[in-house]
Amino acid sequence: MKISKILNNNFVIVQEDKEMVVMGIGIGFNKRVGDEIHDYEIEKTFHLSNSELNDRLYDILVDVPLNVFKLSECIIASIRLELGKKVNEIIYVTLTDHINSALSRYKEGISIPNNLLLEIQKFYPQEYQLGYEALKKINETLNVDLKEDEAGFIAMHIVNSTISDEDNIIAMRITELIKQILAIVRRFFNLEFDNQSVYYYRFVTHLKFFGQRLFTEKLTEKPEDLNDLMPMLISKYQKSYECSQLISNFLEKSYHVNISNEEIMYLTIHIQRMVNEHHQKERNHE
Fold first, then answer.
1. How far apart are CA 206 and CA 212, in angstroms?
2. What CATH fold (topology level) applies to the domain 166-285?
3. Which is it for strands 11-15 and 19-23: parallel, antiparallel or unpaired?
4. pTM to 2 decimals?
5. Which partner from 98, 145, 213, 245 sits 20 to 30 angstroms from 138, CA to CA?
């Protein structure tokens, strides 16, 4: 088989009967498109049935170490086995991306609190338990100390990947909500964001989680301690914060919900990352 694209030293894309990821230690090192891949170099091949998901997977694998992807795949296999219901392939993209991002934040000494942890434990006990087992496996395998908050985040990725056919109406409402919020962001910044970018995809994924909690009436209010974070956020990301406030006002008017400061914080960070990425691409094309 021949290389059609090199993602990094450990992941390449080949085209046989179908396009697929081939992984192996150093499999892309000093290689070029068109080079032959030998069987002894291949540790595993990987393919998702949905072409759009494959493209998303390729985007995140550029920055994902081989051992992290293998660990994520192992965790997902356990989830599929234990859960006893259909798990959407999107979890290979969203959960892998989340685990890699969490590890990157850990190395930088950044810890994001999960103020919904108790609610996740209450409303999604099975998914939380699987998230907790995944967290233990991550910590033990990679010799890190990610906090229990991550078990909740992992649980929500599991929840998002197991929406059944019966939830189609909710899924349609979530889709409409995402469309409305994206329109607010586009109008505010007068920008067309790249809907193929990783940061755009992360923002949409976050909105899916939010929408699911909103439309299943699992959106909760609770006291927050963000006194140190909010002034810094407002000062550093003023425009993105203003945009998040517009979204908050829209949600209050259209859906009769008051979102928390924590949610505004997450919206602000996601929006800022998309804006930064857009401006960086503009500078690269100058």
1. 10
2. PTS-regulatory domain, PRD (1.10.1790)
3. antiparallel
4. 0.61
5. 213
